[in-house]
Amino acid sequence: MASSSQEKVSFENVEAADSDHIGNATKGAVVGSGALAADDFGFSPAEQRKIIRQVDRRLVLTVGAMYCISLMDRTNLGAANIAGMGVDLVLIENRYSIVSLVFFITYVLFQPPSTVIVRKIGPRIHLAAITILWGSCMIGMGFVNHWGQLAGLRVLLGFLEAGFFPSCVYLLSTWYTRYEVGKRNSVFYLVGCVASAFAGILAYGLMQMAGLAGLNGWRWIFIIEGIITVLLGIAGYWLLVDFPDATRKNWSFLGAREREWVCARVNADRGDVKPQPFSLAKYLRAGMDIKVWAYAMIFFNTTTVTYALAYFLPLILTENMGFSIGASQCLVAPPYAFAGIVMFATAWAGDRYRIRGPIVAFNCLLCIIGLPLMGFHSKAAVRYFGVFLVTAGANANVPAAMSYQANNIRGQWKRAFCSATFVSFGGIGGIAGSLVFRNQDKPGYKPGLYACIATTLLTLVIVGLLSLEFRRLNKKADRGEVPLECDSDDTYEPGFRYTY
Q1: Domain of 418: which CATH number?
Q2: What is the DSSP letter of 85?
Q3: Is 394 within the bounds of a domain?
Q4: Phi-psi label, residue 243: left if phi above 0, alpha if psi -120 to 50, beta otherwise
Q5: What pTM was computed for the model?
Q6: Residue 500 lies in a domain
Q7: Fewer CB near the last or first residue (10 Å), C or N of the chain?
Q8: Which regions span the lipid bilayer (predicted)?
Q9: Residue 324, Cβ density class (10 Å: 0-12 exposed, 13-18 middle, ≥19 buried)
Q10: Burial (Cβ within 10 Å: 0-12, 13-18, ≥19) of residue 474
């Protein structure tokens, strides 16, 4: 009930903040001869808001709910480990880190093709199918008897989950104008953040099933969460929507005229609503743009910290701060709840004032303040306060970074390539995050803290350099010296400017 209430409040705030922007987004000529401008459809401002609200509820909440269970499934190892998995499967030396790490090998390798596949077969089939399959994999984890079996299933889980997040990032970026996407990204990730907040409490409750059917409590964590995932995947098949320009018949929640209006307003904003025929050369050509890799590196730095927290926060609370196992499971929730508040507040500010870089930098500063507090202060209460700052800053930067890259690219296939590389680097950050807090460094985990501080500082440097470059290029475009961001058909939108 808590998450449902929070989602309702979030979308009411989104609607209020969008009131003026929706009207502005419908004005202006649409790129492409013969295309209708959004103003030509005759919808009143109230009708326009109603259409966007329908899209919000059908798209953002559905993928958000599916993402929250994805996040729980890939990060529940920490809860299972302190619930007895480490003892039952003899996770000595570096075995726990290996089990955490192998997930990301397939997770990273199989992400680049996912945005092409989802375009070809549609989000409804693609996302629902892989969700059902990885839920089945999760159920299987509850019955393993050797740590090698668990590692093998984690490899399979990485393969199945690889297509989910980049496809969602890509799908969301095609539905909204540039200064609406920040709030939607934050709500999408906010649902996952709420899940992370309560995942520890859920795991603690499932631990109490120890002995039922002769299974230990950690096994029930995997089994019950796997069953929930399968059910959500089945529901997703009926609830998910397609791309705004698609012709596949799963559009019952919008009429033809409303669909055309959605496409027209997005096209008026950036002129790239319809994809060109797929060309591998054009798809890969996006990799020649160094900015694409800069966005990806920002996400790598961000996810290094978020995954380190996801995998090791229960252990840090137990071993470094002296809390009991039950208390540690429950104390994970408040920092993630606080992160949700910071996440939506910064996303609202970013969309309202049309800024991206300063939002990312602000979140980095929260991490830079919080990490030394979490690692080096003598009082456990202050260290726990540091956890709040780090969790908020790192997690709020996930949707902030998503919006940063989405605002500064054009062209559907470049958007697809950028989404894939962006999330792939996030997966590599997951590998780093699963290794930074090493068993031999406990209880202080100082090297891991230094690594998190270093990646956060690097993000600040990259954002600073990008902002200077965006400012320079925008001024040249204003003087008519250089066009910015051609799309997949090598055409430029004269009004496009980078957001910094």
Answers
A1: 1.20.1250.20
A2: I
A3: yes
A4: beta
A5: 0.77
A6: no
A7: N
A8: 59-77, 97-118, 125-144, 156-175, 187-206, 218-240, 292-313, 325-348, 360-378, 384-404, 416-436, 448-468
A9: exposed
A10: middle
